[in-house]
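Hey team,

Filing this mostly as a record. A colleague (T.K.) asked me to run one chain through the structure pipeline before their review meeting, and I want the input and output archived in the tracker in case anyone asks later how it was produced. No errors, nothing strange. Just documentation.

Input sequence:
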Amino acid sequence: MSSKTDTEVIIGGKVYTLAGYESEEYLQKVASYVNNKINEYSRSEGFLRQPLDIQNTLLQLNLADDYMKAKRQIELLEEELHGKEKEVYDLKHELISTQMKLEAAEKRAAESNQTNQKGNAANDAGGVNPGSGNATDGNNYHYNKYNKSNNRK
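Output structure:
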């Protein structure tokens, strides 16, 4: 835990000593924010016509409003971030699934190429090329010859 910090700040023209575990720079930044809000509302004649206690309450309400809006913005950004994280997660899974399908297709293609190469080698040696319909074995030759001789009669 960091050490406690005491620092003097000016808010609304008065000097205050703030103490906390935040840095002096942070405490000065908070005081500056409050001063900017005081200056912003002090430019309004309607605000200045109000009693001091009403002015302080209005200022507190506006500071609380700023806080609540900032908090809501954080919630919206966190929801958006969660949605983006889910989208990335889904895309990663889709990518993995697609890679697996690609690998399976490549494996089938490689197996098919090996089968075709074996068939081509057998065809080059005078055998049958499976599935080609171009049979060159003796049985089909005789069958074709037989059909031709029957047609002549």
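Quick notes for T.K.: Residues 50 and 146 are 119 Å apart (CA to CA). Confidence is low (pLDDT under 50) at residues 137-153.
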